[in-house]
Please model this.
Amino acid sequence: MSTEPAAESSVDARSIELEAAMRLHLVPGIGPVTHGELVRAFGSPKGVFEASPAEVRNVPGVGPKLVQQLSLAKDSIDVRPQLDICQQNNIQIIARSDANYPKPLAEIYDPPNMLFCQGEVRDADQVAIAIVGTRHASNYGTTIANTLATGLAMAGFTIVSGLARGIDAAAHRGALSAGGRTIAVLGGGLLKMYPPEHSELAKEIAQSGAVLSESLPMQAPKSGSFPRRNRIVTGLCLGVIVVEAGDRSGALISARMAMEQGREVFAVPGRVDNRMSRGCHRLIRDGAKLVESIDDVLEELGPLASPAKIDPKTNIRHPAEMKLSDQEKNVLHSIGTETTDFDSIVAKTGLPPARVLATISVLEVRRLVRRVTGTSFVRV
Model:
């Protein structure tokens, strides 16, 4: 039996949903919070436009003017030009209602209604860390940012930053040099690259990660769009590392947003006579974790809210698992979330008891395993 009609129907349904998502994105006055309320109320962007004005009026945050704009949107907003621009420039559209929308980002208070993407966002990118800092970086700052990004990328982390000059660019390049994944989040549209000299770097990032924006592809960046961009940078991550930041650096806005989102905040100390160290030192005084190496980051990050799939066969529960040796992984995977006795661990791993015991001690120090009794253990 041919499945072509069903396949065509599926494609048509996706196209209709995408057009509805784009139309909702283009309606003036619908920010992330109101967008979330509307989609929750009616199940999908398409459902929003199928609802009656009276039903829409009952949604929190929706007033008479917005009800009217939604009623007129189907005839007044032509989404085809934007969809064509994306198709012609190999830009993927990720609506907030899509299954591949980044899970950590979906959890923040005001996630973007829509993401425009060159490259690919993967499940493994849930294990991500942001590295941000001043555009006016010193040699020390760029070296540290590059070194941290390289080490964390080699450990399996996705490095996220804003593609700005200085610290951001050094972080992206460090991840690329390690053959790792990196994500750049822009303040303007993907086809209005800023700064323009980072166009080639953006192409490299798209080949081994993703370049993202919530702005329409041809929308030029504005000064107010960069703080909005920062919430996406931190929202994608488990934590943010600040490397060199002055008293009024945008990186401090990222740190504040990270704290509001429940992310960990890290800061690299610098010279006391360097004004670009003041922001980092203030963060450390206020409780940010001081970072000297990637081990400081791995020690601080706690268990993930839900296991992350870093490849088709591997789920991890804790970022520290990224640096384990094969033997340590073997022992860890033999210990369940229910109490597991020592003899069972030995049998599952096939390792000598003394080696298993020594490895368990290492896992205990890394807070991946907890001893329940003298001869039984549980995975944290």
